[in-house]
Each structure stands twice: as structure tokens, then as C-alpha cells.
Write a structure and sequence with these properties.
By secondary structure, the chain is of the alpha+beta class. The strands form nine sheets. Strands 11, 13, 15, 16 and 17 form a five-stranded antiparallel β-sheet that branches. Strands 23, 25, 26, 27 and 28 form a five-stranded antiparallel β-sheet that branches.
Length: 618
């Protein structure tokens, strides 16, 4: 047989074997019994009489079910089952687990029930039952509340939520502050509102709790269904640890947000639907959270060796090396991990170790702040020196803490292996004492090195007799004079630069507006309005010497009044900036607004410039 043909046949056989192995593995996984999870959910749990509610029964199986009967739901005196429907989908994936290929299959069965409440009041959807492959699966019941009037959920809602309303003194709890906003609703949370709410929570906790923030500077958000509607939820978590027993209330916490409304400037706005624009008016509103009451319980009488820690903890210990000559050091490492802050863990005290010389430990503390709370890891490293030959036991090491879930004191035990101590190279009594790193640093800081110069000469007690003295003596005064002149020149240069920027601000703004006019055809109305807004901000900053970025309309009016520039032109400038805000943030903007606003921007800047010059002449 030719060599090339023989190689081709061999490769074909190998591929066939590989394919056979893969098919065999996948088929072998098939006959396993299916695992089914069954649940039910509602798109809303509160609705008006006559309003439709969608119930979804969801069954997820690890294989396709041969015989499945949809759950039965019949109309009652409380609700009517208007109609039902169902759907099915399947997904599969192949993964490599311990060198074997495993196929994972998920088949999802969805059953929809459209129900309509008949009368007001609370009613209960009974547990639905699914029969699949001769097995019965049950889902939890659901309670629905029907009302006479349509249920209107607020556009903005805030709440406080505690993970546990009963804490032991020293136990860490989680307090969550949530701001929920309806998507596309005319409301807007503000950074000032979040800042004030955080300060209010800190002040409310200061008297009875140790409060720590479990969030960074950036606020994260997700989507959540509340009252049957989807909300965008902003969450801030706090770690709170009671400092004394008693019952303490937190809240209600005020949260300030903005209610956005389109201002009306013309009676024809109702007819044209605001086609020709209109200002967006932001009205400050305040929402209040609920009140959270937390009961702090005192700890029972502690044992003598209680560490002071309350929470969940673990203890790890190790010795390295396990075999060494007498007089040689070994490292004993102890690691404590717990769900509390470092100040609440206390220090670990090493018991007396017979046959060892023990030095002061090196302590390292690591704090990890997560959304689930503060977690602390403390590591102690002891230097121990065996003094007696033979097998020496170390430990056991113990640490006592209070477990709030069990409501009792518990003891952690760290078991260590015995150390084998062999004969040392020197007598034990004459060995060199080993220092810890901390002692080495302390000794090093006390050392003063004295060096004798190779040649000694007489040093005169009259330095003014040295000619170098007359050269160096006036140098400090020269440096002081130079520093004074340099600072004065820098102030003059800064003032001149501000004057130059102010005089050129008008021409610079017109040039930038002309350049924007050439590009207006390729820009969207929102982008053109944003560019105009930046140009006007830079113009006001350079012309008047105050930072216009980030100021509200009322703050701009106050800045104009403080500089004697208040007048019709200044009012037109503020009004035009408000119009630009409308274009930038309106849901729909006519295309002609960009060109019209460019002409108005030139006119507003020119009018303000004329007003400034007229004030100076007068």
C-alpha cells in the first residue's frame, strides 16, 4: 500500500475514533433523569379592578420532557382567567470537566395566564402544579391586591432597608438606601440629593452606631420590579455596628430630586405640541424614606478570654519549618478572618510555649470593603526558637468570639503539628540571640556612626575672619529680594493675562460661532446646542472672570448682578442658555432650531458686549 494512502487511512481512523468517543460521551449523558425547577411570577401584585395581570409559570428542565401537562388555573369569584398561552425554548452547551466532555441542556417551558380582578380586595393565586414524566412539581402561591381606583406608582420613590432589625452590640449589619426612578419619567435625581441623604444617614447613626460606607464615589444602578413596574434603582449600602444596647430609629431620610416640566411660552404650544421649543423647568421636590428601627441587644456575660469580636470568624495557623536544630528560629503564622472592622477584632494573644523562646510578632491587617460588608484579615508572624531537643508540641491555639447567629460564645482552635528539634551546632546556652525585624529597625535607628577625618586642623571660633563669610552672608537677602520680585512679576503677569483674555473674549466667541455655523449642516440639533453652550460658557468665564461651568441660571443672574452687568442683555443671555438646555435635553428637537439658535447666539453676545461698554462710558 502506498505510504501516503496508509497515512490518510490512519488519520481517518483516528478521526472516526475521536468522533465515536465524543458521541459516546454525549449519548452516555443523555439517559440521566431530568432535574426540573418550577416557579411562578406576576408582572404586578397590585392592580385595579378590570386591569389585566400576567402570571408566568416557568419550568426549567435539564432534558426535554416527554409527557408534560400544563398547570391548570380556573376562574374564581375574585378573578377571571381571560386567556392562556405557552412557549418553549431550548439551549445547550458542551464543557470540558476533568478531561471529559459534558453536554448541558436546558429546556424552558413557559405558561402564561392573563387574569382580570373582579372586585376589590386581596386574593390568593393557589399553588400551581405541573405534571411532567409522571412527576408533580408545585410552585409557591401569590397574593394579589385589587383596588377600586387605578394604581399609580410614583415616578420617584426612596426607601431604607435593613438586613436585620435585631443586632447584638458589636455585630455588623447592612443598611441599604435605595432611590427608585421610573424609566423615561420627568424626574431626575441630583448629586446634591445623594450627598444630603448620606449626611443625614451618617448623622442619624452617629449617636448609637459605627457607620461605614460600602460604596465608592460612583453610584451603581440596576433595574428592579417594584409594585409591578420596572424601576431604575440606585443603591447605597452602609455598614452599621451598634455601640450600645437599646432601640434606635433611622429616618425618615429626605431625598431631594428635580421634577422636570416643559415651560409654556405661547398659547399655541398646546396646538403645536411644543414644536417650536420651550424651556425645561426643573422644580425641586423632596421624597421621604420610611423609618427603620433597629434593636441592639447587649452581649451575655463573656468568658475570661473573650477577644471582643462579634460576627463570623475563622482561624488558620502554620509553622515553618517543622524540623530544625535547637537554637534555630521557626516562623509561627496565625491568620484571623472575620466579618467586622479591624477595631472590633482585638489582638490575638499567644499562650505560653514551654521549651521555646518567643519574640514579639509582626502584625499585618488587611481590610476588604464589599457590598456584603467589611471583612478583615489579621496576620501575626511570631519568631519562635526551640531550646530543647526532641519532639516539641506547639499549641493548640484558641480564640474566643461571639456568634450572633447562634447567640453564644464560640472558640476557634488552630491545631499545629509537632516540631522535631535536632541537636544544634552549638550549645543551647551559648547560641546567638535572634532579633525580629522590628527590633533590627529599632537598633539600627539608635546607631550613630563616628568617623574621624584623616587630617585634623584648628577651626577658628571667629567665622567673620574668613573671606568666604563676606561672600555667603548677603546671599539669603539676595534670595529673599529675588523671590519677592518674582512673585510680584507673576501677579502682574496673571492680571495682565486675565485682562487680555477679557478683551479678546468677544472676538473669540464670534470666531467660534462662525466656525460652528460652517459645521452646523453636519451636526444634530443637540450637538449644535451643546457646542453653543460651551462657547457661551467660555465667553462668560473669560469676559467676567468667574467659572460659568456648572452654575445654575439663578447663580448666573447673581454673578451678573455682583459685577454690575445685570440688565436686559444679561437677562437675554440667561434666557438663551435656558433655551439651549431645552434643545440639549428635549426628547425631540426640530432641525431648524440649530440655525436659528446660531443667529440668536451672536445677537445675545453682541447685546451683552454693548451693555458692558455702555456701563463703562457712563
Amino acid at each position: 500500500m502506498p505510504r501516503g494512502l496508509r497515512r490518510t487511512g490512519r488519520n481517518t481512523i483516528v478521526k472516526a475514533l475521536h468522533g465515536g468517543i465524543l458521541i459516546g460521551i454525549l449519548v452516555a449523558a443523555g439517559p440521566a433523569s431530568a432535574t426540573v425547577t418550577f416557579s411562578i411570577s406576576a408582572d404586578k401584585t397590585r392592580a385595579a379592578v378590570g386591569e389585566q395581570i400576567i402570571l408566568t409559570a416557568r419550568a426549567v428542565s435539564t432534558k426535554k420532557l416527554d409527557d408534560i401537562k400544563p398547570p391548570s388555573l380556573q376562574s374564581t369569584g375574585d378573578y377571571t382567567v381571560a386567556r392562556t398561552s405557552q412557549n418553549q425554548s431550548q439551549s445547550s452547551s458542551v464543557t470540558l470537566v476533568n478531561g471529559k466532555m459534558v453536554q448541558k441542556v436546558e429546556v424552558t417551558y413557559l405558561f402564561y395566564y392573563f387574569i382580570v380582578p373582579k372586585k376589590p380586595g386581596a386574593f390568593r393565586i393557589p399553588p400551581l402544579k405541573l405534571v411532567a414524566d409522571s412527576k408533580t412539581y408545585s410552585a409557591q402561591p401569590i397574593t394579589i391586591t385589587a383596588t377600586d381606583k387605578p394604581v399609580v406608582n410614583p415616578d420617584m420613590r426612596v426607601s431604607l432597608r435593613d438586613a436585620k432589625d435585631r443586632l447584638y452590640v458589636g455585630e455588623q449589619g447592612i443598611l441599604t438606601f435605595e432611590v427608585a426612578q421610573k424609566p423615561n419619567a420627568p424626574v431626575k435625581p441630583t448629586s446634591q440629593g445623594f450627598t444630603a441623604a448620606v449626611e443625614a444617614i451618617d448623622d442619624a447613626c452617629a449617636a448609637a452606631f459605627s457607620c461605614s460606607h460600602l460604596f465608592a464615589d460612583r453610584i451603581t444602578h440596576n433595574q428592579k420590579r417594584i409594585g409591578g413596574e420596572m424601576y431604575i434603582v440606585f443603591s447605597l449600602r452602609f455598614s452599621i455596628i451598634p455601640l450600645k444596647p437599646g432601640s434606635f430609629s433611622i429616618g425618615p431620610v429626605p431625598f431631594e430630586y428635580q421634577q422636570l416640566e416643559r415651560g409654556r411660552r405661547d398659547p399655541f404650544d398646546d396646538f403645536f405640541g411644543g414644536f417650536f421649543g420651550g424651556g425645561i423647568r426643573a422644580t425641586p421636590e423632596t421624597a421621604l424614606t420610611n423609618t427603620v428601627t433597629i434593636t441592639a441587644v447587649a452581649l451575655p456575660p463573656p468568658p475570661r478570654d473573650f477577644s471582643g469580636a462579634v460576627g463570623t470568624f475563622s482561624l488558620d495557623a502554620s509553622v515553618d519549618p517543622r524540623e530544625l536544630p535547637a537554637g534555630e528560629p521557626a516562623t509561627l503564622s496565625i491568620t484571623l478572618r472575620g466579618s467586622t472592622r479591624p477595631g472590633n477584632m482585638g489582638d490575638h494573644t499567644l499562650p505560653s510555649l514551654d521549651g521555646f523562646e518567643v519574640f514579639s510578632p509582626e502584625k499585618h491587617t488587611h481590610v476588604d470593603t464589599t457590598a456584603q460588608g467589611i471583612k478583615t484579615r489579621q496576620t501575626y508572624k511570631y519568631l519562635i526558637v526551640p531550646q530543647v531537643e526532641g519532639t516539641q508540641p506547639v499549641g493548640p491555639l484558641t480564640w474566643v468570639y461571639f456568634d450572633p447567629d447562634a447567640g453564644m460564645y464560640k472558640t476557634l482552635t488552630g491545631k499545629l503539628p509537632e516540631i522535631t528539634v535536632t541537636r544544634g551546632t552549638k550549645a543551647t546556652g551559648g547560641r546567638t540571640r535572634y532579633l525580629t525585624q522590628e527590633e533590627i529597625r529599632e537598633v539600627g535607628s539608635d546607631i550613630r556612626y563616628i568617623k574621624t577625618p584623616p587630617k585634623l586642623r584648628h577651626q577658628s571660633d571667629k567665622p567673620y575672619q574668613n573671606p568666604l563669610f563676606f561672600i555667603l552672608y548677603p546671599l539669603p537677602f539676595v534670595f529673599a529680594l529675588f523671590s519677592f520680585l518674582y512673585k510680584r512679576q507673576a501677579r502682574l503677569r496673571e492680571r495682565d493675562a486675565a485682562r487680555i483674555l477679557s478683551s479678546r473674549a468677544y472676538r473669540t466667541a464670534l470666531k467660534r460661532l462662525d466656525r460652528l455655523g460652517k459645521e452646523a449642516g453636519s451636526l444634530s440639533p443637540r450637538d449644535a446646542a451643546a457646542r453653543q453652550y460651551d462657547i457661551l460658557e467660555d465667553y462668560l468665564t473669560q469676559r467676567f472672570g468667574f467659572a460659568a461651568a456648572g452654575k445654575t441660571l439663578d447663580e448666573l443672574r447673581a454673578e451678573f448682578a455682583a459685577r454690575g452687568a445685570d440688565g436686559p442683555a444679561a437677562s437675554e443671555m440667561v434666557g438663551f442658555i435656558e433655551e439651549l438646555d431645552t434643545v440639549r435635553f428635549a426628547p425631540s428637537v426640530p432641525a431648524g432650531d440649530a440655525v436659528r439658535n446660531l443667529h440668536k447666539a451672536r445677537a445675545v453676545v453682541a447685546g451683552l458686549e454693548k451693555q458692558i461698554k455702555a456701563r463703562r462710558r457712563s
